[in-house]
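Entry 14. Structure prediction run on the chain below.
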Amino acid sequence: MKNASSIKTLKIDERDFSARQDETILDVARQNDIFIPTLCDLKGLSSVGACRLCLVEVKGNNKLVAACVTRVEEGMEVTTQSERLQRYRRNLLELLFTERNHICSVCVSNGHCELQTLAQKLDITHVHFRYRYPQLQVDASHERFSVDHNRCILCSRCVRVCDEIEGAHTWDVMGRGIEASVITDLAEPWGTSQTCTGCGKCVHVCPTGALFEKGKSVAEMLKRRQFLPYLTQMREELT
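Output returned:
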């Protein structure tokens, strides 16, 4: 039985909730069907706060905080929907579109893309920022999979699932800021990797069309992530 001191009470959008002290604001929101957008967070993987789309307001704090990495506190009052939050989220999403080359009509994940779905949900019909149009490579050297860096949003899901679930750590992030990119091994072509097991977990956790399986149609590009909660549970039971 949990110690009473480990249970925290808080308010989210003027509603009262209780949660364990090790839970985050995003955990509580999801358990109670409160929508908070996110692209980097995925159940079964560690939370890193990479996309910043889950920003929320906490009473008494002038700064916006990332719900996925902010633990609940006693008496916390959280706001998940406001004009300020909507503006920040829309701006962040628009910047993701401008930093790379996201052309939904010719993307293998058209109709099955979290970036596209979230843009529709936030009613983004056009982008106010200038497009960068970077010339990024498509690495098709792997016999089964390809990575299109034009569609990567640097959520780091591939890095985390390869490290935390598969234990291979084939993927990593190289560079800083706008120049950052995901790489395999020491920035070698994916097909020459000595650590990749070919499991495809990185492909199935990718929220966009950056990682995809060769020869698959749009309808077949629906990502399968059921393995994550199961493997995470098994790993915890063994430790």
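The chain has two domains: 4-81, 96-238.
Filed with the rest of this week's runs.
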